[in-house]
Design a protein that fits this description.
By secondary structure, the protein is of the alpha+beta class. The protein has nine helices and three strands.
């Protein structure tokens, strides 16, 4: 039976990842919803990763799959973005918002704009958090490796003033 890897969220907003043995993608979605989770991504598992887990080998793919998402992100994050990279990301986001684009659409566009130093996953997580009802500053505060307290508080001030 095919295996599907999934990424889902609990009602609390916590990200959960796992594997399912189901017939097809739609069955995987149904199973995830039965678990009381909200599916974010469901993909057919790569044969190499599945075989590595089944063989009990010591590959990086294997043990990383069992780590909590937060720890996995911390281990895979190479470095903190430089000031110029943060400025570019901020300017690109500001340009999209100034053009009249809604915040969620702008964050979705940011995943496709290659901002050097800031992974596309960060924009995806920001968009997901905003869609769940959090403010942009709260979503950014969940990414302390990327966004400093000063940056988050400047965004919070802008949200409060409506600027």
């Amino acid at each position: 039976m095919p295996q599907f890897s999934y990424k889902a969220r609990r009602r609390t907003g916590e990200v959960v990842e796992g594997m399912l043995d189901v017939a097809d993608r739609s069955a995987a979605l149904i199973q995830i919803e039965r678990l009381g989770l909200f599916p974010v991504a469901v993909d057919a598992a790569k044969a190499g990763a599945v075989l590595a887990v089944q063989r009990g080998g010591k590959s990086k793919v294997e043990w990383m799959a069992f780590l909590p998402p937060g720890l996995r992100n911390a281990l895979t994050q190479k470095r903190k973005p430089k000031l110029q990279e943060m400025a570019t990301f901020t300017q690109q986001l500001a340009n999209l918002l100034n053009s009249g684009m809604p915040l969620t659409v702008a964050l979705n566009s940011m995943t496709h704009l290659e901002s050097k130093g800031i992974p596309a996953d960060v924009s995806k997580e920001l968009k997901q958090d905003v869609m769940e009802g959090r403010s942009l500053s709260d979503a950014m505060s969940k990414q302390p490796r990327i966004f400093s307290d000063l940056y988050v508080n400047m965004v919070r001030a802008g949200e409060s003033s409506g600027a």
